[in-house]
Structures are given as C-alpha cells and as structure tokens.
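S.,

Sequence below, as promised.
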Amino acid sequence: MTISIAGVTALVPFEEVYRCHAAGVHRFCVSQVPDRALAEDLTHETFVRAFVAYERVGPDLDSARAWLLAIAHNLCADHHRRHRRWRGLLARLTDRSSADVEAIAEHRVDLVRVTAALASFRERERQLIGLRVAADLSYREIAEVLRITEAAAKVGTHRALTKLRARLGRSA
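The prediction came back faster than expected:
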C-alpha cells in the first residue's frame, strides 16, 4: 500500500504488511506441511524474502496478501520437491484458550481424519484446499497464487472439496 503525501508516494511500512497478513500466511503454511515448526520456518522465510523485495515490488496492502501467499506457495513447493513427501493438511485454526478439553479432543480427531483423507490426494488438490480453506482466499487470489485461471481455481477447488467430503463421509 502506498501513501501519497504532497505528491510524494511512499510505501506503507513493511511492519503493517506483516501485521495484516502474517496469520494468513502462517495458516497456509500449516495447511501445506505436516510439521508446525516447519510451517513457522516457511512463514519466516516468506517474510524474509518479501522484506528483501518489498521496495522493488511495492505492493499495496490488498495485493500484498496474494503476493505473500505466492511466495509461501513457492517455498512449500520447493520443500516438497526437496523431500519428496507429503503428509497432509494439518490445520489448527481454533483458539485453544477458549476451548474445553472435549472440544480439543474432537478437533484433533477431525484433524486426523482430514489429514488421513488428504494423504492420497494429488499435490494440486491439497494446494487448492489449503488456499481456499486454511488461507481463506478468493478464487481470484487462488488463481494468482497458483498462476491458473480463476475458472480453473473454482472448478479445481470444488472438485477437491467434493472429493474430500466424499472421503470423510465414507469413513464416518
């Protein structure tokens, strides 16, 4: 986001971009790798790379979200190429401080079921689900991150989520 003061355009401080988008980037990374510490490392690396390129790219606050998620997506893809393995979606999106023990246990059971179901999905299906559900992106933003058309993002996400619902329905 840029600010114009007396005809001079200045970027919004990077700290503001970080404050606005760190949680979403982290949720996306958690949805893409099986280890929370690794997700934190990938989130950190995303912001390191973004910081280095921030003045050159100069995204506004709205477009910064897709830009950051594209960086995170590339880092996650690089990680999977290097290690040749994928364990599934691990998302802990609820605030545990307000949840009771039963709710936490139920949530963990649900996560195990989702992770097991996603283990056999193709990488693209996992990415689409992660970007739509964990990172809460629009189809347009998913298309930007994955460099596909918005229509392909809609159709692919719909099919991946339908497949996930079917797998979860059968295992219930």
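The chain is about 70% helix and 5% strand.

Coffee later?
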